[in-house]
Amino acid sequence: MAWDKHVDDIAAKRSHAKSLGGEDAVARHHAKGRLTVRERVEALLDAGTFREVGGAAGGAERDESGKLTGFTPANFVLGFGAIAGRACVVGGEDFTLKGGSPNAAGLRKSIYTEELALQYRLPLIRLHEGGGGSVAGSGSGTVGDSVATPPRFQSVARTMKAVPVASAALGAVAGLPASRLVASHFSVMTNESQVMVAGPAVVERALNHRPTKEELGGPEIHARNGVVDNLAEDEAAALAQIRVFLSYMPQNAWEVPPVAATDDAADRRDEALLAIVPESRRRAYDMRALVAMVADQGSVFEMGRLHGRGMITVLARIAGQPVGIFANDCMHYAGAMTAAGAQKLTRFIKMCETFHLPIITFIDEPGFMIGPDAERASTIRHGTEAVLAASDAQVPWASIIVRKNFGVASAAHYGPGAYVLAWPSAELGAVPAEGGVAVAFGREIAAAADPEARRRELEAEMAARQSPAARAESFSMHDLIDPRETRPALCDWIARVQPLLPGLIGPPPGVANER
Q1: What's the predicted TM-score (pTM) here?
Q2: How far is CA 398 from CA 254, 363, 407, 498, in A?
Q3: Nearest CA among 409, 469, 401, 406 for reference residue 436
């Protein structure tokens, strides 16, 4: 037939593309315990849903008659798929070709990834393993992009305002892929991965020192410094975390988050909440356990546990409604807001704002972290950014004062129009009793016959004045509640605010509203 040879040509290129870097390269990759990019895509998506874009892109070699004699596929795989029945865009480097460093067609597909997600307003998942550009192969001829070419990272920035973006580091990730990895709302890396600006050879040439990949950017480094949100034991666990993250998200900023069916009763009162906060102000408790008791059972998904450890940030559901929850971890610096914790919180608030997730905060805030290290870390600058992010929020907001509520840092726990509840254990004031007494009564304490006894006496007196009862009686909060009433109260609140969420849809200024 007339078109047989052309159809055969298409089939041959597709076959080459499915072979990636060839049998030997794939075998070497598998020997490292890693999946190929195509295997990762299939493992992530619902079975049979992947529809590739640009499968025939690559470098073709032909004889004088035009017959295909060889084909090097683009080393970036891109396409549409579905997760839990919901459409998405997924892309990733093929490490079996050039170690994932993009060839010409691979680079074009990589750059197009964000444009595709924006065009169809679909969540974007990037599966990274590879390096950035290479000095090899530049050759002669036209060099660089046209001056009319839009900035390469413009579409990356726009996706962050328009669609959920989740990324995984599944091997060595450097250069451009590393930058794309962190330009995400959620990022995860496996315990065998590394993330670097540049690899050991480049570092050695520049700094005359050759560190290992793990020393440059191993998982323990980046989970603690906030480059990635979470760690995963292996690739399957990393992909599972991405699926869970997306389950809380709308498809885009023009939609509201998906409400899930739940059989967890709205009026459930967990008896353990009554005793979870110790009467002694000096004893800590498990804030994560508290959050889990209030949220829908089994719905809590924590992000960034090892970074900014005094601040807990989770996605969860209340009465099936996806929400963003943040809380102080009193087991780490008494829950004080560090520079890292503030940066983590600011990012979290902005994500909730972008995708219209109501925010709930459980407050045990002693204030900004103090001391020389805190000052060197610019805590006041980063902390104020968190306060401003909260002050500028538009999503519905509920604030539960569990214990401490002190200082400027406490303002980061209240969005405009916040629904404010307090437990009997709450303490409210400008500063904690201990610090306030030390400043205001320093001379009196020093002059006392028993300075330490006088200090304790004054601290107890000031702490009593910080009780929430007087503020509740003065209508400085919406209510003072039995801790066991927290879930029922929040479920009622969710029912009230859900009709407001459609009024928030749409991205921030600068992202087109038209397709």
Answers
A1: 0.90
A2: 23, 11, 19, 13
A3: 406
User: Residue 440: is its pLDDT beyond 80?
Assistant: no
- What residues does 69 pair with on adjacent strands? none
Q: What is the DSSP letter of 507?
A: P
Q: What are the structure tokens assigned to 484, written together?
A: 């066991």
What's the topology of domain 8-134+152-247?
2-enoyl-CoA Hydratase; Chain A, domain 1 (3.90.226)
Residue 319 has which token pair?
Answer: 């009465």
183-213 pLDDT per residue, tens: 999 999 999 999 999 888 888 888 888 888 8
SS3 277: coil
- In CATH terms, the superfamily for domain 271-426+468-499 is 2-enoyl-CoA Hydratase; Chain A, domain 1 (3.90.226.10)
pLDDT of 514 higher than 50: no
Phi and psi (nearest 5°) for 69?
Answer: -115, -15
The Cα–Cα gap between 413 and 378 comes to 20
pLDDT score, position 405: 93
b/e 164-182 (16+ beta carbons within 10 angstroms → b) = bbbbbbbbbbbbbbbebbb
| Helix then strand then coil, % of the chain, to nearest 5 | 40, 20, 40
How many beta carbons lie within 10 A of that of residue 204, not counting itself? 13
Angle between helices 37-44 and 235-247 (to 10 degrees): 40
502 CB-contact burial (10 Å; exposed 0-12 / middle 13-18 / buried 19+)? exposed
d(CA 205, CA 457): 63
Residue 471 CB contacts under 8 Å (≥ 6 apart), including other chains: 422, 428, 477
Q: Name the helix (H) or strand (E) containing 492.
A: helix 486-497
Rounded (5°) CA angle 74-195-211: 115
Give CA separation, 292 vs 43, 197, 315, 420, in Å: 29, 37, 11, 20
Give dist(CA 495, CA 500) in Å, integer.
10
* Cβ contacts of 172 within 8 Å, gap of 6 or more: 99, 129, 130, 131, 193, 194, 196, 199, 213
Query: Same CATH fold, 271-426+468-499 and 8-134+152-247?
Result: yes
Amino acid, single-letter form, for residue 115: E
412 DSSP β-pair partners: none
pLDDT of 54-84, one tens digit each?
Answer: 887 777 777 777 777 777 788 899 999 999 9
Distances (CA, A) of 71 to 15, 62, 65, 134, 214: 10, 9, 16, 21, 35
**3-state DSSP assignment of residue 404:** strand
Domain parsing of the chain, residue ranges: 8-134+152-247, 271-426+468-499, 431-466
pLDDT tens-digit map of 378-390:
999 999 999 999 9
- pLDDT tens digits, residue range 240-275? 999 999 999 999 999 999 999 999 999 999 999 999
